[in-house]
Amino acid sequence: MTVSAAAEAEGRPAEQSDRPAVGRLSAVWVLIAGLVGLTAALTLTYEKIELLINPDYVPSCSINPVLSCGSVMSTPQASLFGFPNPLIGIVAFTVVVVTGVLALAGVSLPRWYWILLAAGTLLGAVFVHWLIFQSLYRIGALCPYCMGVWAVTIPLLVVVSAVALRPLHANPVARAVYQWRWSLVTLWFTALVLLILVRFWDYWSTLV
């Protein structure tokens, strides 16, 4: 079946077939992920500014020796490109928020936009995993706000990719990945929690 025929079978004009429909739940999730990420990025930027003004300032997310974004923000990894990493998050998650609002309002965005957004989210996921490694095995501390960004990035990648790659639904590999996508996300969260527990077990054990 051609793209035009498929579009007509779904009751859509052929010229609109390159604008994938986005389910309400997907739109809501994109918006929520964008808001969570943007809030975390803005908060981290504020905390960084306060820390630059007053080196003795204690960030609100510095809770204990492990959950301490003050320890994380003072490292070179927190400014990988020469400026605070949260500034990247402000720009990126603003785009995600706008996308979520448009999708929720029923605005049809072209497929190329979703493909670019999926590619950008994939780069963000790679960056997040680099930061996870650095936090666990180089810095030895966790930033709660950063962890909020970690928590929304992977599910966001899944949702955005599902929209962008919908034409590949006939591909058996793509179909299998799509069917098991939330199971894979669950495994990712489980693995991350286990890594954190194991890495900082000496501290967690003192709380029991």
Outline the structure in words.
This protein is mainly α and 208 residues long. It has helices at residues 3-9, 24-53, 69-73, 86-104, 111-139, 144-164, 172-179, 181-199, 201-207. Helix 2 runs antiparallel to helix 6 (144-164) and helix 6 runs antiparallel to helix 8 (181-199). 26% of the residues are buried.
Tags for this model:
single chain; 208 residues; mainly alpha; 9 helices; 0% strand
The portion of residues assigned to helices is: 55-70%
Give the helix tally.
Answer: 9
Low-confidence stretches: 1-16
Beta-strand proportion: under 5%
Fold topology:
Elements: H1 3-9, H2 24-53, H3 69-73, H4 86-104, H5 111-139, H6 144-164, H7 172-179, H8 181-199, H9 201-207
Helix pairs in contact: 2-4, 2-6, 5-6, 6-8
Question: Could you give a quick summary of the protein structure above?
Answer:
The chain contains nine helices and no strands. The protein has 208 residues and is mainly α.
